[in-house]
């Protein structure tokens, strides 16, 4: 299939990594981005300016950008000191345009033009939504606090919003018209859930004729997904949407270096488990591959507000596998 229509759902580093390679597969790509982020620079701008969260949108825009490297670097540049310490230029740009036009879509369109992006970046909703997690008798409000919440192993929390969040018509259309839908890797409860539980997304995924592919995480998050296996992640994705919604699940078979494993173990982070027997008995087809990047990753020295992952997907290997699925 030449130039398949691909819609990616997610936000954050997982989406950023895949989008950089997906744009080489097709120009007809749409990134649907979760809008519940309230941490770091994004959280400060939301609190002080009353804007919608720009951070994950910015990352996806830069990933799809065809502009010179200097301009992409500018949108990712974080101020190292002063009042703006920790804020990225791109976040401020998006927030400034939203305040000027009173329309978040305008800010995304303007940034898209400046960055000359391939495809489109769309907020999954433009409703101002605050994420809520419930487990047992506990209720946690706010994406950042949810990230810091300690869940007992294999706890499956209920996820929602403080008020209704409705999917945009453009987001619904992007799912409906896609040939392939990719659910990106990412923080299960703080990044993927807030994209998938928005009203209208589950129905759109159920109605679409597209193949739905989930790219599973590489590493478990301590106190959220401790001891999770690939099938546990897939189960949660379908719990957020509809059972049986996934057609394919891509998971990693490669192993990080001992030094990286030791660094992650210090923070109680371990690779996602694989149970082949269980995977063979699912409604989706599980496809294992060497999806781990061995390239050196340089941290942004001004990125003090956000922890960045060193174990990342080899986006090219993942996209090559997605390409084969387009031919089926």
Report the order of strands and helices.
EHEHHHHHEEEHEHEHHEHEHHEH
Give me the oligomer status. single chain
Q: In total, how many domains does the architecture comprise?
A: 1
What's the CATH superfamily, by name?
CofD-like domains
The CATH class name reads Alpha Beta
Mean pLDDT: 92
Query: Ranges with pLDDT <50 over ≥5 residues?
Result: 300-308
CATH architecture: 3-Layer(aba) Sandwich
Explain what you see.
This protein is α/β, with parallel strands linked by helices and 328 residues long. The chain has one domain (6-326): Rossmann fold (3-Layer(aba) Sandwich). The chain contains 14 helices and ten strands. The chain has helices at 13-25, 40-49, 55-63, 69-76, 89-101, 104-115, 143-147, 169-176, 188-196, 201-207, 230-240, 258-265, 276-279, 315-326; strands at 6-10, 29-33, 120-123, 131-135, 138-141, 158-161, 180-183, 211-215, 248-252, 285-289. The strands form two sheets. Strands 3-2-1-7-8-9-10 form a seven-stranded parallel β-sheet, sandwiched between helices. A three-stranded antiparallel β-sheet has the order 5-4-6. α11 (230-240) links the parallel β8 and β9 (248-252). Mean pLDDT is 92; it is low at 300-308.
């Amino acid at each position: 299939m030449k130039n398949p229509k691909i819609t990616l759902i997610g936000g954050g580093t997982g989406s950023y990594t895949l989008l950089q390679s997906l744009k080489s597969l097709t120009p007809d790509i749409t990134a649907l981005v979760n809008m519940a982020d309230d941490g770091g620079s994004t959280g400060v701008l939301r609190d002080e300016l009353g804007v919608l969260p720009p951070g994950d949108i910015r990352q996806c825009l830069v990933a799809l950008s065809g502009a010179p490297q200097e301009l992409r670097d500018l949108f990712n540049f974080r101020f190292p000191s002063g009042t703006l310490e920790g804020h990225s230029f791109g976040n401020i740009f998006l927030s400034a345009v939203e305040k000027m036009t009173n329309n978040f879509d305008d800010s995304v369109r303007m940034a898209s033009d400046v960055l000359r992006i391939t495809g489109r970046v769309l907020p999954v909703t433009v409703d101002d939504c605050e994420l809520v997690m419930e487990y047992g008798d506990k209720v946690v409000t706010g994406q950042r606090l949810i990230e810091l919440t300690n869940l007992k192993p294999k706890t499956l929390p209920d996820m929602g919003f403080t008020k209704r969040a409705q999917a945009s018509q453009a987001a619904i259309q992007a799912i409906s018209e896609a040939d392939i839908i990719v659910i990106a890797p990412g923080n299960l409860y703080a990044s993927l859930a807030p994209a998938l539980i928005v009203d209208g997304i589950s129905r759109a995924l159920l109605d679409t004729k597209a193949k739905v592919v989930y790219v599973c995480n590489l590493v478990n998050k301590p106190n959220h997904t401790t001891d999770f296996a690939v099938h546990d992640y897939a189960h949660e994705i379908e719990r957020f949407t509809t059972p049986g919604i996934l057609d394919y699940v891509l998971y990693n078979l490669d192993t990080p270096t001992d030094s990286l494993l030791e660094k992650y173990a210090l923070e109680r982070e371990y690779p996602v488990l694989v149970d082949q027997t269980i995977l063979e008995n699912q409604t989706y087809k599980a496809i294992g591959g060497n999806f781990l990047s061995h390239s050196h990753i340089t941290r942004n020295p001004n990125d003090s507000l956000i922890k960045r992952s060193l174990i990342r997907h080899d986006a090219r290997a993942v996209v090559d596998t997605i390409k084969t699925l387009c031919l089926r």
